[in-house]
Amino acid sequence: QVRLVESGGGLVQVGGSLRLSCAASGRNFGTYAMVWFRQAPGKEREFVVGINQSGVTTSYADSVKGRFTISRDNAKNMLYLRMNGLKPEDKAVYYCAATEAWIYGSRWYGASTYNYWGQGTQVTVSS
């Protein structure tokens, strides 16, 4: 099992930047594919970006391509999300999640793919 704790959310102006972190406890962090999802008020949880176990393969939602960057440090049991050029529509609670499965193609996008979830961190973008 793995326990996930997000941090780094906050209030930022349009066009600003934030870096979210997800700390994982437990063993063998490098055996988990990791993702960031987000959920805005009144909307379903949606896939943002994912990274495979080694960090070599990533998958981005079209809405964040070119603005967001996912990375991981398996030695430190950490997952990161660098968010640049933030827009009002990026406002949401951001969750990191994990699965021990090997993820490819459209499997990245479904929340049911992931067994472990953090509690979320709020990102607010003011105009």
Features:
mainly beta; 127 residues; 4-stranded antiparallel beta sheet; 48% strand; single chain
**Intertermini distance:** 40 Å
Shape: globular
Poorly predicted runs of 5 or more residues: none
- State the assembly state of the protein chains: single chain
Alpha-carbon Rg, integer: 13 Å
Instruction: Tell me roughly what share of residues is in helical segments.
Output: under 10%
Average pLDDT reading: 96
> In sequence order, what are the helices and strands, one letter per element?
EEEEEEEEEEE
Q: Beta-sheet strand percentage?
A: over 45%
Please work out how many helical segments DSSP would assign.
Answer: 0
Class computed from helices, strands and strand pairing:
mainly beta
| Record field, number of beta strands | 11
Tell me the major beta sheet.
Answer: 7 strands, mixed
Structure write-up:
With 127 residues, the protein is mainly beta. It is 0% helix and 48% strand. It has strands at 3-7, 10-13, 18-25, 33-39, 46-51, 58-60, 68-73, 78-83, 92-99, 116-117, 121-126. Strands 2, 4, 5, 6, 9, 10 and 11 form a seven-stranded mixed beta sheet that branches. Strands 1-3-8-7 form a four-stranded antiparallel beta sheet, with no helix packed on it. The radius of gyration is 13 Å and the shape is globular.
